[in-house]
UniProtKB/TrEMBL annotation:
Organism domain of life: Bacteria
Name of the protein described by the UniProt record: Helix-turn-helix domain-containing protein
Pfam families: HTH_17 (PF12728)
Domain named Helix-turn-helix: residues: 12-60
Entries under NCBIfam families matching the protein: excise
Species annotation: Paeniglutamicibacter terrestris
Length: 70
């Protein structure tokens, strides 16, 4: 059984936004998503990446500080 979560406060980023924050190309973000290194949700033909997943990925990569996406 799936635990109840509050998705109303979840923030999602586009692939372009993730690429901008990480200072990489959109193709690099797509590779991370397809390899499973960066979780994402598919909406139609596009992907959305949870903001906290990007923060966690960067933290695990050794970038401990938070960032501002807006």
């Amino acid at each position: 059984m799936v635990e109840s979560q509050n998705f109303a406060s979840a923030r999602f980023m586009t692939v372009a936004e993730v690429a901008d924050v990480m200072r990489v190309s959109k193709m690099t973000v797509y590779r991370l998503v397809h390899s499973g290194d960066l979780p994402a949700v598919r909406f139609g033909r596009s992907y959305r990446v949870p903001e906290n997943a990007v923060q966690e990925y960067l933290r695990a990569a050794g970038f401990g500080r938070d960032f501002n996406t807006g």
